[in-house]
């Protein structure tokens, strides 16, 4: 009986020894493995004229939507959707109504061909802003705001849910903020586009910006356009002309 117990202890010791040896070898080589890793440093530079409006992307770097502070979209503690200028151009979203139809969590109730009321989270949206300045909207005074042309705007920001910090009192549905195009270039830039489509559609848009002083500290931008089109409805015609002029200056 004593002999069997001794053999068991010896067997346990002999099988455990290689495990301890392997652990010792692994720990001995761990510092060398860490020392072999190289530190990778990534460097980059951004142009002095770079801005959010010039980003050829569907996203923007920072936004003040929801907090009035420049933050990245993932750091904002609310549900935010941003429809950029590039996306509006690529998807041909030429009116505010078309932007809302392509925005997550927004539904519409159409009264006629021009008047649409929008809803989010079960409530009607009555908080509309231009460059962060609140304007009150009531459905009975809806004069076709959904036809507002997006050629005047750099992007459209939608904050879903209660947004009293930005808009004050109102329905806890959502707020729609339309950011106008600003003069951001210190050199002359221009863009003229024409479009022809179904139902005798014709559309012309001109977008020009230029420095007004030699150093470029004062800049101006003009956006103008005209559109005329018929519809699948008989005796319906839509004609609109829009214009926006803005001057930006660097102070200090």
TrEMBL record:
Organism whose genome encodes this protein: Salmonella enterica subsp. arizonae
Domain TonB-dependent receptor plug: 73-173
Family: Belongs to the TonB-dependent receptor family.
Protein name listed in UniProt: FhuE receptor
Organismal lineage: Bacteria, Pseudomonadati, Pseudomonadota, Gammaproteobacteria, Enterobacterales
InterPro entries named in the record: Beta-barrel_TonB_sf, Plug_dom, Plug_dom_sf, TonB-dep_rcpt-like, TonB_box_CS
Record carries keyword Zinc: no
Signal peptide stretch: 1-35
Keywords associated with the record: Cell outer membrane, Membrane, Receptor, Signal, TonB box, Transmembrane, Transmembrane beta strand, Transport
Subcellular location: Cell outer membrane
Gene3D superfamilies reported for this sequence: TonB-dependent receptor, beta-barrel domain, TonB-dependent receptor, plug domain
Gene Ontology CC entries for this record: cell outer membrane
Coiled coil: none
UniProt GO MF annotations: siderophore uptake transmembrane transporter activity
PROSITE patterns in the record: TONB_DEPENDENT_REC_1 (PS00430), TONB_DEPENDENT_REC_3 (PS52016)
Membrane topology, from the record: Multi-pass membrane protein
Short motif TonB box, span: 39-45
């Amino acid at each position: 009986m004593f002999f069997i117990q001794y053999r068991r202890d010896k067997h346990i010791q002999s099988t455990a020894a290689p495990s301890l040896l392997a652990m010792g070898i692994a720990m001995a080589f761990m510092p060398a493995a860490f020392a072999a890793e190289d530190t990778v440093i990534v460097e980059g530079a951004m142009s002095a004229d770079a801005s959010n409006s010039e980003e050829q992307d569907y996203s923007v770097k920072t936004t003040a939507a929801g907090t009035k502070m420049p933050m990245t979209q993932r750091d904002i503690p609310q549900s935010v959707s941003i429809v950029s200028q590039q996306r509006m151009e690529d998807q041909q979203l030429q009116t505010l109504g078309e932007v809302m139809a392509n925005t997550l969590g927004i539904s519409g109730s159409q009264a006629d061909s021009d008047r649409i009321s929008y809803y989010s989270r079960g409530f009607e949206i009555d908080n509309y802003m231009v460059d962060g300045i609140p304007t009150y909207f009531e459905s009975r005074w809806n004069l076709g705001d959904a036809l507002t042309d997006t050629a005047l705007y750099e992007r459209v920001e939608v904050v879903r849910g209660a947004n009293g910090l930005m808009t004050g009192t109102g329905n806890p549905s959502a707020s729609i903020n339309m950011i106008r195009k600003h003069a951001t270039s210190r050199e002359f830039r221009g863009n003229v586009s024409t479009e022809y489509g179904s139902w005798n559609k014709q559309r012309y848009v001109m977008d020009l910006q230029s420095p007004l002083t030699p150093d470029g500290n004062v800049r101006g931008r003009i956006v103008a356009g005209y559109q005329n089109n018929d519809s699948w409805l008989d005796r319906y015609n839509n004609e609109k002309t829009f214009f926006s002029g803005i001057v930006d200056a660097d102070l200090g």
